[in-house]
Amino acid sequence: MKQNQIAHGCALTVLTDSSVFQHGYAADALIRKAIRRALGSQFGDNPHYDLLTIPNIGRIYEDGELPQVAADVSLALGLHSTEHLIVIKPGPFMLEDIATRLGSDPRLADIGGIHVTHVEPPDPMLSSDTAVIACMDYRQHGPGGFMRRIDELFQAPDGYHLICIPGAAKDIAGSRGPAVIRWLTHLRENWSVERVIIVSHLDCGAYGGTARFNTEGEERNTLARDLVAAVLHLRQYVPQGMYYSLGIAEIDGETTGQIRLVT
Questions:
Q1: CB 257 within 8 A of CB 199
Q2: Does residue 3 fall inside a structural domain?
Q3: Would 60 be classed as within a structural domain?
Q4: Helices and strands of the chain, counted as H and E runs
Q5: Within a domain: 114
Q6: Distance (Å, whole) CA 211 – CA 144
Q7: What pLDDT does 206 receive?
């Protein structure tokens, strides 16, 4: 019998810059350290966290992206019972004003707190030519999540720039398109990124979860359709020379499991 499996009980949402993830799964340890710095040990050594990451986060206000970020955090609040938003600034970014503006958004009135802390990425910064677009769902991050294996799965030994947004490919051909195009153009021009990996996952809350679909085949076909539509859209507007890899991650309880490539 099909059931609604959308994960509940994730108390934290993290907002940070994609550059933190140039060092791949090592960024998870940095984030956990930043969470402990902001909130102490109340969530233990391995807290679950939804993850929102964007390139060049210092321009989030100038680029008009703050309302969408507030909507994304609100989605996490509704799906996973988020209690705290942790804004992690890598290096010199000044994000206190952004946190204040988010705190005044009525959609986030029920959130327990918004905390700003920092993390120092390992030195030197890598020059990765790969960007990954994935969902914010906490089951993809931390122990058991596929992000710990993405370097191996997609042959990305030099790390990657990680863009995490609800639904991954879901709205790239629609409302998310302008922002994603702007982010990838920035990564292409400033970091020589030439490869984009987009991974969606089963039981995604942005789609309404597994229970929204009549069959697993329907769910997989919907994800695959949106992945292909995303690439077709990006190819029209992102600078030439980018190539794409697509995948669908399976969900096994509280973790993500096997990733099947979409060709």
A1: no
A2: no
A3: yes
A4: 6, 9
A5: yes
A6: 23
A7: 93
- What would the two tokens of residue 118 be? 């920092």
Q: What is the torsion angle, in degrees rounded to the nearest 10, for the CA atoms of residue 43, residue 140, residue 155 and residue 243? A: -130
Tokens representing residue 44 in the block: 């233990």
Q: What is the pLDDT of residues 27-70, one digit of tens each?
A: 778 888 888 888 888 888 788 888 999 888 888 878 888 899 99
Of 10-14, 159-163, 253-257, the poorest mean pLDDT is in: 253-257
> What is the chain's Cα-based Rg?
17
Number of domains comprising the chain: 1
Domain that holds residue 251: 12-262
Q: Is residue 1 part of a domain?
A: no
pLDDT in tens, 197-239: 999 999 999 999 999 999 999 999 999 999 999 999 999 998 7
What does the block give as tokens for 191?
Answer: 């970091």
